Amino acid sequence: MIGHLRPAVNTMWILFLLISLAAVSFALSVLRIASAQSATIAATTVPVYEITTRGNSTDPVLPGAIGVQGNGYNDKYPFGEIQQLFNDCPSEISIVIHGWNLTEMQAKERFDRVKMSIEHNQYSIPIVGYSWLSNVTWADAKSIANQNGPRLAHFIFDYKDACKHQHNKDVNIRLVAHSLGARVALNTLKSLNDINDWNTNHYNLTSVHLMGAAVDDELVSKNPSDTGDSFLDDGAVYGMYIQNKVVNFYNLYDPNDDLLKPPYVYSILEGDFALGYHGKQIGIDAPSVAIYKDINVEGEIPNIDDSDGDRKCDIPILNPFAPFSAEICTITAIGENHFGYFGFRSATDGTLIDDGAMNVVVINWRSP
Questions:
Q1: How far apart are CA 96 and CA 118, in angstroms?
Q2: Where in 113-216 does DSSP place strands (E)?
Q3: Chain-centre distance for alpha carbon 279
Q4: Using one digit for the tens of pLDDT, what is the confidence trace for 248-264?
Q5: pTM
Q6: Rounded-to-integer distance, Cα 259 and Cα 130, Å
Q7: CA 128 from chain center: how many Å?
Q8: How far is 135 from 52, CA to CA, in rounded Å?
Q9: For the chain, first and last CA: distance in Å?
Q10: CATH code, residues 45-302+337-366
Q11: How many CA atoms lie within 13 A of 17 on its CB side?
């Protein structure tokens, strides 16, 4: 009987080998497809430009933003030429505005983190980093931020108008502003409204994203009478400019942000609630819901205390019970790191380890 079974066994082994070979072939095909997809992802490159008003930011009669030559953060890549951007007029650009108390090198680091986060989300768009003199006192920085609105507005108008009338291209311009950079962005909208040719040509901004906005929560109102919650209020509101000059306006807020949630830094400095803490103030005369959107991004900010990879806690405080004024880190939970909206950098090799809330920005760009 055993001899009669042998041909059947051989046949089974042959079938098994054929099936195995087919499975291996299929697996290799899947790997090749995955490899090709990975290559496509890796090929997503975001070019970076930079403009700056550092050195002329405190005098409103001086010229506006100028293009920065040289290399980006840690000499990883050369900045693109601003004039070339005006010549090429890509279909869309994103202007990234950093926040308070940053040096030029720290600003470059923020722009690089935005670049890596956008690339991680497989979106290709040129970014223009907007570097302004923010490493001064809080009060001075607020004033300088206001002054930077007209400067950035004129750059935006010049770019939009040149692309339209010299190259016959309609370009989409997107703003992304972090922390006190929100004040620059809001004053930019106001200043665009003051440019006659911007209005007569019916230009607009395709999108604005505020991230952890360090401005009062009533500033997005259309009615100046909604101000007055703090003795520092100046009566300025920007809701009408949002309504008339922006297609989609997103306020990405975080109720657990260590610098914005009361009773900490922002509340102490301003005596009010921050727009980036809980969204717009309830009851104000806000822009249309079709244009203005509050989005809670607390869950997008991981419990990582070092966003820029410098091996230091981003928000330390002095420990009064420790000798030699030792510091303790305040960041111990999801959502607390105010400096993580642009993403998080590895302290080991400088690569991206988390994209912060930039994935939400890209989702909004893809689905306006």
A1: 12
A2: 127-131, 172-178, 205-211
A3: 17
A4: 999 999 999 999 999 99
A5: 0.87
A6: 23
A7: 11
A8: 14
A9: 74
A10: 3.40.50
A11: 6
